[in-house]
Amino acid sequence: MPIDAPHNSRGLSGKVIVITGGCGDIGGETTARLSGFGARVIIFDLLSEDRGAARARQLGAVGYKKVDQGNAQESERAIEEVVHEFRRLDIVIGNAAVGSGGRLLDLDVSQWEEALRVNLIGCAMLAQFAIMQMLKQAPDSSGIRGKVLFTSSWVGSFPSPGAIQYCVSKAGLDHLVRLSAQEYAAKGIRVNAVAPGILDAGLTRKAFEEDPALRSKFLATVPVGEFGTVDQIADAFGFLCSRESNYMTGQILFVDGGCSLTKKD
Predict the structure, then answer these.
(1) pTM to 2 decimals?
(2) What is the CATH number for 45?
(3) Percent above pLDDT 90 for the chain
């Protein structure tokens, strides 16, 4: 039976949403935003069960599971548990990511493997497990069986020197979005990503703390003159989760204040 929701919820009331890395800056704000629309959000993250459950309650989520996005067995088991409890899975957001600074000659194989394990292969397997479930379930009144979303980055398309393995992993993720969207659009599944620019949050904030000179250097490359915020990224995810984006698939939605328009040294 098709499902639907009141207009003021943007079609998200009662929807079952999984978000990885949901305890962090972007993930936490997105969880709170989607929960505020009436969605039932389940967070996957690396905190202990007790700490994660407390964070989930703080954000309005309905559940928490300790899951490493880069571990396919953990992701598969957790998705199965969500479906068993909530009877369906409407949206999954692959938001977790890792990455350190470094140029090609600075990095060893373990640093490459870690970035690709979490940021690319982990996202691919998360999408696989989610889509396998979505194909089994009835569509909503708009014909949508499910949505698979990711947190990409502007550096996936516009390389920023100094974090080569992170940039490469996000470039691969962007193509994962496009190809998965092609494969499953006709089945009622939409695949998109949000590409944040330079935020004073998450991994970028850690880089600023390690090298304060980066703050002014990076700010000079943002045409709007200010860093992005996590609530702006949550706004973008709210749109991609909502019925307003139902005709979009295979898109990388840049929310970057124009920094991808600026030549980098």
Answers:
(1) 0.94
(2) 3.40.50.720
(3) 82
